[in-house]
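Any chance you could type out some protein's one-letter sequence along with its backbone structure tokens so I can compare the two?
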Amino acid sequence: MILPLQMLYFEDLAVGMSETLKKTIASADVVGFAEVTGDRNPIHLSEHFAAQTPFGTRIAHGLYTASLISAVLGTRLPGPGAVYISQTLNFRAPVKIGDTVEVKVAVEELIPEKRRARLACTCSVAGEPVLDGEAWVKVPSKEGGGRPLPRI
């Protein structure tokens, strides 16, 4: 799921622009997220435990799914140098191991005097929303000196 970097300045953005990302959720992703965050809830890690829940199987952490939004914001729209201001999240349905999540981020509003953008964020599985919300980000400006180029 490595996204090529796209570096957009505030002046490059327009309402309606969007980017998408697709990611199939692997068990190793969920285990790795648990290791990084310390959230070892057995609904994410134990098939035996999860089988006894209403979901019937292991599910990904909700914030793991949300972190895929961050991947789009930080690499594609608007890309490197964008800084999160806020993010709302509405969890609509579980994401199971093996599901392919489609993340869509779209520019909804631009505030030029603050170089801020409001983006609609949706994650879906098989066309059904599993998470939605909106993000506010501060975006570098061409006239503000730009940003350093990332070394990859």
Observations:
- The CA atoms of residues 93 and 128 lie 9 Å apart.
- The helical segments are 27-37, 42-45, 47-51, 62-75.
- The chain has a mean pLDDT of 93.
